[in-house]
Give the backbone structure.
Amino acid sequence: MTEGESPRTVKALLAEIKDLSELMVDVAYAAVFFSDPDLAKEVNQLEDQMLGDLHALRKLSILAARSPEDAEHMAKVLAIGSAIERISDAAVDIAKVAGPVKGAIEMLIKDLRFADEIVSRIKVREGSDGAGHRLDDLGLPVELGVWVIAARQQGRWQMDPHGDHVLNAGEVLLVRGPEDGINQARVMLGNLPLPDQQEPPAAVSELDRAVDLIVEMKNSAEVAVGLAYSALLFNDQALASEVSRLEERSDAIHYEFESWILRSSASQSSPEDLRGLLHLATASEMIFDSAREMTRVVERGEELHPVIAAALVESDEVGHETVVAAGSPADGKTIKELAIESETGMFVLAIQRGRRWSYRPRPMFTLQPGDRMIAVGPAGGGEELDALVGMSRESATQAG
């Protein structure tokens, strides 16, 4: 801790390692998507920062335990910290795949363009609407659902730039978000939208099927982590159970993936090219397992220390729970029609209708009154989502 810097707290450290792990996964997939070893090195540097934060978290948690009850609470905090560490380990493994593009990985890169959220590079052009403005002023997460992962000037990457970062002409941004939001950001910064791409053809070979399963595992793993954090934030056993189901389903997907890989190996001119896909599948499974570990205390109905929810609220992306009201703008509309992510910045993880959950609902999912929605995004996006679905917090409080 430098002179003049305020002491770090368990809450602040827990929020920071959560944000760091998510940043590491984003940068790792960007390194694969752009075949960029320099970005892969950034993941390793972020890992060093993560290890330092974890050491500080463990030290503070031990010092905070002044009674057996305190020790029990802090043990749960440390368990969550260890689960988050495994996500960062998975990010390091994902980054190892970055490098020269080979057959199987080239197929994967093409398919990643059709993932739920994509990564893109955007150059800030002279005279554009965004040049000379702070990131906070542009409000990309809330307005477009787009997050700036990194900014590069004079050949050096700055990871996770703060809101007061001023965009300069010639600067290159690495961003994550829905494709329509990214296209709006590209235009704002003086670029043409991404070129249209045809949907990938229906899988016809064993390798095609394996690659499709990798993308499905990536998408589902991200949802599992988001649901796990939401389960902790709301102390919700139903959400924790959904994470458990996702983790169980991931085992079946992983088994199917391995089957297709084995079938395809004989037809590959260089079976070594398949190693990268195996690496990514194992990393995705690690992320699923980490999400599952985080929710075990919720499933058991154990009391959580308030610092856990407080840390999750202070992180860059927060969980949000809302309910669709009759007669609201969302009533009877599909997720695609509402453009929820680019309009509010919130990504819908799951929707509960009665006793049934639909996780990662597709764009054509039609919302109905009473649908309970779990989403993640910037803090300000929650209010916009409430307005869209007609959720009145004041009425809900009075009813309670």
Observations:
- The beta strands are 118-123, 147-153, 156-159, 172-177, 318-323, 347-353, 356-359, 372-377.
- The longest strand covers residues 147-153.
- The chain has a mean pLDDT of 88.
- The chain has three domains: 10-111+201-310, 115-188, 317-399.
